[in-house]
């Protein structure tokens, strides 16, 4: 991608607005990033976006920060990462610096609570929309192993509450082993 | 959150437990990852704007180092079968984890702080309606999700204030 000033600014503006709307947990930035960088701008393929999400999740630190470093790096190399980081970090920095001045009033404000409560349902819809799309693709690919991994990971994490690190380590290793085996046998299990 | 609490309240005593609880509430109300929000808030309370900058910088530095390394490695070795395999195994897992997060937020939205119960009548029907409408609009018209979030915030806000 051309490393001109216009694209740097676009990257900054995109990450800035995405971060400004990452309400309700770091995960929501993934659907927002997909809509922006994959669907709207066409700068990334959907599979790359999922790879970025996977790496962002597997690394220590806030997922949204990790994801923006990876996106910035992937799009514009070593100079893209600081631009994306800045775009991601500035909105909370600005908003919270302002709010912390009168946080008690903000916290107790009825209108703010009502709007945020409404927003939570919207955030759910956004997350479910992307999960339906991405999960649907896994199912439509008709490969049994990824479908099992997806279902298994959900059950183990949501129901059994196993630590996320073990799940990531296990599925990453499983993927590596199966891929190597596939390469030898010429099959396509994963 | 337990990590932040042990550093900020227990070890350094920068915030009281009440202030820390306020911080959590605010951080969940404002956009941005909770780690960044906490860092900014604590930093502001202790040392104003300079404090906010310093603690935010400290918060993102490990990510910057580790993830940049990961990004460089990915760029260099992404064609390797092993790397492709690891990512192929992680992709469906990530979908499952995002779904888990969504489901948790859904339970919080529909049932509130007390969590899931079989008592259907205790469900927040405004939340259900907003969710259903939002999901329908997203599937059918594929609008910018930010509009859906803002829309449900405004419409929901009005509904909650009226009822």
Keywords:
heterodimer; A: 190 residues; mainly alpha; 2 domains; globular; B: 163 residues; 6 helices
Describe the structure.
The complex is a heterodimer of chains A (190) and B (163). By secondary structure, chain A is an all-alpha fold. Helices cover 81% and strands 0% of the residues of chain A. Chain A starts with a helix and ends in a 5-residue tail after the last helix. Chain B is built from 6 helices and no strands. Classes of the chains: A mainly alpha (190), B mainly alpha (163). The interface between A and B is large, with 104 and 91 residues.
SSE blueprint:
The complex is a heterodimer of chains A (190) and B (163).
Chain A lengths: L4 H16 L8 H12 L5 H13 L4 H37 L3 H6 L1 H31 L3 H16 L4 H22 L5
Helix pairs in contact in A: 1-2, 1-4, 3-4
Chain B lengths: L1 H10 L5 H13 L4 H44 L3 H31 L13 H17 L3 H18 L1
Helix pairs in contact in B: 2-3, 5-6
**Major sheet of chain B:** none
Q: How would the global form of chain A be characterised?
A: globular
Distance between the termini of chain A: 30 Å
**Roughly how many Å is the radius of gyration of chain B?**
21 Å
Q: Helix-strand pattern of chain A, N to C?
A: HHHHHHHH
**Strand proportion of chain A:** under 5%
Structural class of chain A: mainly alpha
Largest interface: A-B, 104 and 91 residues
């Amino acid at each position: 991608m051309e490393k001109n000033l216009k694209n740097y600014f676009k990257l900054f503006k995109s990450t800035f607005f995405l971060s400004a709307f990452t309400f309700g947990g770091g995960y929501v930035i993934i659907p927002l990033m997909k809509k922006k960088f994959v669907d709207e701008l066409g700068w990334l393929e959907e599979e790359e976006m999922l790879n970025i999400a996977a790496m962002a999740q597997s690394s220590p630190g806030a997922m949204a920060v990790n994801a923006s470093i990876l996106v910035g790096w992937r799009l514009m190399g070593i100079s893209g990462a600081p631009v994306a980081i800045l775009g991601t970090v500035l909105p909370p920095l600005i908003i919270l610096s302002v709010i912390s001045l009168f946080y008690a009033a903000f916290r107790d404000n009825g209108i703010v609570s009502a709007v945020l409560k409404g927003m939570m349902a919207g955030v759910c819809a956004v997350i479910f929309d992307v999960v339906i799309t991405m999960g649907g693709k896994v199912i439509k690919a008709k490969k049994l192993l990824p479908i099992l991994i997806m279902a298994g990971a959900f059950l183990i994490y949501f129901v059994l509450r196993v630590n996320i690190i073990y799940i990531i380590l296990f599925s990453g290793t499983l993927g590596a082993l199966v891929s190597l085996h596939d390469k030898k046998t010429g099959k396509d299990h994963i | 959150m337990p990590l932040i609490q042990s550093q900020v309240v227990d070890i350094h005593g920068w915030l009281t437990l009440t202030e820390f609880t306020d911080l959590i509430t605010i951080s969940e109300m404002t956009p941005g990852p909770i780690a960044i929000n906490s860092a900014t808030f604590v930093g502001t309370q202790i040392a104003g704007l300079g404090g906010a900058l310093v603690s935010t910088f400290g918060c993102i530095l490990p990510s910057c180092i580790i993830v940049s390394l990961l990004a460089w490695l990915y760029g260099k070795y992404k064609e390797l079968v092993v790397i492709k395999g690891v990512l192929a195994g992680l992709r469906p897992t990530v979908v499952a984890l995002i779904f888990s997060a969504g489901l948790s937020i859904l339970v919080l939205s529909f049932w509130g702080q007390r969590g899931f119960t079989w008592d259907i009548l205790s469900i927040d029907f405004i939340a259900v309606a907003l969710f259903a409408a939002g999901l329908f609009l997203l599937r059918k018209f594929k609008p910018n999700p930010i509009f859906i979030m803002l829309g449900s915030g405004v419409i929901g806000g009005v509904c909650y204030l009226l009822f």
